[in-house]
């Protein structure tokens, strides 16, 4: 399975703007992005960090649901949020922390088991693993157009 997304950018980093043009599933198109949305105020625009938060929250929710069901305690519901902290460090702008928060309705489970299964889901969800610095990031380029 492969997932795809396309984005475009026009102009400089500080004055320019862009779009998350589309995703392969067609679930959404045309999400506006700007530098200001990353560092100051969203103003109806998104940022890569906000999209990382959405990806992580949804991935963790699925992983945790699976862990709970596997332990014999299927969740009635889970509410997950992810907060991405994006800061300017000496080496440049960096995601320094992601905080996952979860609340749930899970019959028959105690807090200790809920917490242990949540920690396991955090460690094993594919987005958590993708954020590990050892992941391979491949790059291809196309011929340059100078028009």
List keywords for this structure.
147 residues; alpha+beta; three-stranded antiparallel beta sheet; two-stranded antiparallel sheet; 4 helices; 5 strands; 31% strand; elongated
Structure description:
This protein is an alpha+beta fold and 147 residues long. 32% of the residues lie in helices and 31% in strands. The chain has four helices and five strands, in the order βββααββαα. It has helices spanning 35-39, 48-70, 111-124, 126-130; strands at 5-10, 17-23, 29-33, 77-89, 92-105. The strands form two sheets. A three-stranded antiparallel sheet has the order 1-2-3. A two-stranded antiparallel ribbon has the order 4-5. A hairpin with a 6-residue loop joins strand 1 and strand 2 (17-23).
Low-confidence stretches: none
Q: Please, what is the oligomeric state? A: single chain
Radius of gyration: 18 Å
Query: What string gives the helices and strands in order?
Result: EEEHHEEHH
What sort of overall outline do the alpha carbons produce when their principal axes are compared? elongated
Count the E strands.
5
Structural class: alpha+beta
Euclidean distance between termini CA atoms: 36 Å
Proportion of helical residues? 25-40%
Q: Could you give a short account of the major beta sheet?
A: 3 strands, antiparallel
Chain-averaged pLDDT: 90
Q: Largest beta sheet: what is the strand line-up?
A: 1-2-3
How many H/I helices?
Answer: 4
Strand % is 25-35%
Short description:
The chain has 147 residues and is α+β, with helices and mostly antiparallel strands. It has helices at residues 35-39, 48-70, 111-124, 126-130, and strands at 5-10, 17-23, 29-33, 77-89, 92-105. Helix 2 (48-70) crosses helix 3.
């Amino acid at each position: 399975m492969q997932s795809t997304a396309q984005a475009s950018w026009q102009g400089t980093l500080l004055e320019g703007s862009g779009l998350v043009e589309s995703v392969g599933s067609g679930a959404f198109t045309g999400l506006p992005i700007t530098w200001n949305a990353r560092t100051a105020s969203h103003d109806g625009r998104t940022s890569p960090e906000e999209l990382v938060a959405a990806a992580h929250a949804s991935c963790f929710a699925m992983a945790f649901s699976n862990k709970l069901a596997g332990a014999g305690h299927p969740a009635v519901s889970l509410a997950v949020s992810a907060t991405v902290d994006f800061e300017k460090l000496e080496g440049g702008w960096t995601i320094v922390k992601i905080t996952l928060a979860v609340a749930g309705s899970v019959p028959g489970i105690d807090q200790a088991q809920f917490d242990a299964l949540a920690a396991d889901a955090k460690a094993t969800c594919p987005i958590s693993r993708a954020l590990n610095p050892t992941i391979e990031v491949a790059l291809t380029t196309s011929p340059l157009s100078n028009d």
